[in-house]
Write a structure and sequence with these properties.
The complex is a heterodimer of chains A (about 220) and B (about 325). Chain A has about 220 residues and is of the alpha+beta class. Chain A is built from 8 helices and 5 strands, in the order H-H-H-E-E-H-E-E-E-H-H-H-H. Chain A is globular, with a radius of gyration of 19 Å. In chain B, about 30% of the residues lie in helices and about 20% in strands. Classes of the chains: A alpha+beta (about 220), B alpha+beta (about 325).
């Protein structure tokens, strides 16, 4: 089941393919209709963990899964669906490494339950590119070297994509002099304030800001 | 995280009844604070009633000329609403000074009001905390308390309410509409909504179990210029040391009326009513602002680490009042 899901995946980059396949095969997620892979582990539990069926729509694909209600959206992505691009940093909404887009809006996937997102359009870092064509924000991060270790990068990029949408819609920020102004000029101060939910421990901030500025100007 | 069952509410009445039916049940909306606390097992609900998809996500004009904000309106949508930005700019400023964009996109209006304190001893299960475990004591009194309350605290608890939004809503005299399991509704003035700790710091609001917030109503915007100013340890994404929401109406060189609410200083948004009374009719001068700030902080008590908040709150209030007067 998991294998079929992987093969029909739309836009995963070839370089990730091997790693993703391994991830999916090792995942403890139970696609509907399949049995738990490891019956020894299941039998060792004193009581079975109650699960609930849910359907998630991620990167324009539907997944039917049976999960413990406690499963966060981040853990569903990483541990049960093989989508390990979204990263777990603090697991408390403070670092932004887990940022994904739900209905085009950026959220911390660690601070929400998978069960609360049935039917929502979820986009992760794996779903931004069109085939081999990078999303403009991804391309800008590459061009500007907007990272060092890269761990925060998927969250930074998803956050930036959401942020550019907010700015296009004219949403003000704490850095805006006049919150009633109809449009937003994305100065560096605006970009920094709007991206404050994403931490980069390598402190690649100057290049991250430059990449987002480029992407904003291009759009 | 402890195990729980989950259901999605079909209606406001059903949600209230579902929570009321079980003492161990809780509402979940944005979840940004509740899930954080559930991961640490500080919150341990056995049943969650998901109210995030109830049709309480609209901002509507009221007959009185104000706005009725549905409980499920996200913090980011409330901050970005053109009517809020033009008529209640202080509310937009307060919302945008709080949390991160990701959290504002998830956090609901009602959840923001109901968020728990960020006192480090409330979060640390190895330490005593009367709010987390009744009768265990307050570790903050003799501990690291630079973030803590200077007004309205008790020997049992010196935690502060962390919301920025609620401070602006306090200055705007918002009313909180609720629905109870039986379908009854009531409107609670925001000043009566949160409770001071006294001997029962675990009881934070006047809501009954199963009583659900349906909306927050803002009266028509009061005359005068609105300013929200927040002082914090970082430029962004940090809780307030002190914040001030001020609305000042001028008439010539004199102040006709003023409304002032403070954040980061107490277990609830703190209206500075005495300062407001002193400013009504006073000359719009730095002397009047200083007197008002002294009056507002007259009852303040520091606990060592947070002693600095008393002069900081006075200065912040003077500056905020001056900014509100500048172009009023």
């Amino acid at each position: 089941m998991a294998k079929t899901d992987r093969r029909s995946g739309p836009t995963r980059r070839t370089v990730l393919e091997g790693g993703v396949a391994t991830g999916v095969l090792l995942a403890t997620g139970i696609p509907v209709g399949a049995k738990p892979a490891d019956s020894v582990t299941a039998a060792a539990l004193p009581t079975p963990v109650p699960t609930m069926p849910m359907s998630l729509r991620i990167n324009a694909r539907d997944f039917a899964v049976e999960l413990d209600p406690r499963t966060t959206l981040l853990d569903a992505l990483r541990n049960h669906l093989g989508l390990t691009g979204s990263k777990k940093g603090c697991d408390h909404g403070q670092c932004g490494a887990c940022t994904v887009l739900v209905g085009g809006r950026r959220i911390n996937s660690c601070l929400t339950l998978a069960a609360m997102h049935e039917g929502d359009e979820i986009t992760t870092i794996e779903g931004l590119a069109e085939g081999d064509r990078l999303h403009p924000v991804q391309a800008a991060f590459v061009a500007r070297d907007g990272f060092q270790c890269g761990y925060c990068t998927p969250g930074q990029i998803c956050s930036a994509v959401g942020m550019l949408g907010e700015a296009r819609a004219g949403w003000p920020s704490h850095a805006s002099a006049d919150v009633a102004a109809a449009s937003v000029a994305l100065t560096d101060a605006e970009i920094r304030e709007r991206m404050s939910g994403n931490i980069c421990r390598c402190a690649a901030y100057p290049n991250i800001v430059a990449a987002i500025r480029d992407a904003a100007e291009e759009a | 995280m402890q195990s729980f069952t989950y259901e999605r509410a079909a209606s406001a009445e059903q949600a209230a009844a579902a929570v009321a039916a079980r003492p161990d049940a809780k509402f979940i909306s944005g979840g940004t604070n509740l899930l954080d606390l559930m991961k640490l097992e500080i919150e341990r609900p056995a049943h969650l009633v998901d109210i995030s998809r109830l049709p309480l996500d609209r901002i509507e004009e009221t007959a009185a000329g104000g706005l009725r904000v549905g409980a499920q309106v996200r913090n980011s949508d409330l901050a970005a609403d053109p009517r809020v930005r033009s008529r209640y700019p202080m509310l937009t400023q307060a919302l945008l000074a709080g949390a991160s964009a990701q959290i504002r996109n998830k956090a609901s209006t009602s959840g923001n009001l109901l968020q728990r304190t960020r006192c480090p001893y409330f979060y640390d299960r190895n330490m005593p905390c009367n709010k987390r475990e009744q009768g265990s004591g307050c570790a903050a009194l003799q501990g690291f308390n630079r973030m803590h309350a200077i007004l309205g605290a008790s020997e049992a608890c010196i935690a502060v309410h962390p919301s920025d939004m609620a401070v602006a809503m306090s200055g705007l005299d918002a009313r909180i509409e609720t629905i109870s399991p039986g379908g009854e509704t009531r409107a609670i003035p925001i000043g009566d909504f949160h409770r001071l700790p006294e001997a029962t710091p675990h009881v934070e609001t006047v809501l009954g179990h199963g009583e659900m917030i349906a909306a927050v109503t803002l009266p028509p915007p009061p005359p005068g210029r609105q300013v929200y100013r927040k002082v914090r340890d970082r430029a962004s994404y940090a809780f307030a040391l002190v914040s001030v929401a001020a609305i000042v109406e001028k008439s010539g060189d004199r102040i006709r009326s003023a409304r002032i609410a403070m954040g980061g200083v107490a277990a609830k948004p703190w209206r500075a009513t005495e300062a407001e009374r002193m400013l009504a009719g006073a000359a719009a001068s730095d002397g009047a602002f200083t007197d008002a700030a002294e009056a507002a902080l007259a009852g303040a008590i520091g606990h060592g680490g947070n002693d600095f908040k008393i002069p900081l709150a006075k200065r912040t209030m003077r500056h905020t009042l001056a900014a509100a007067v500048e172009s009023a």
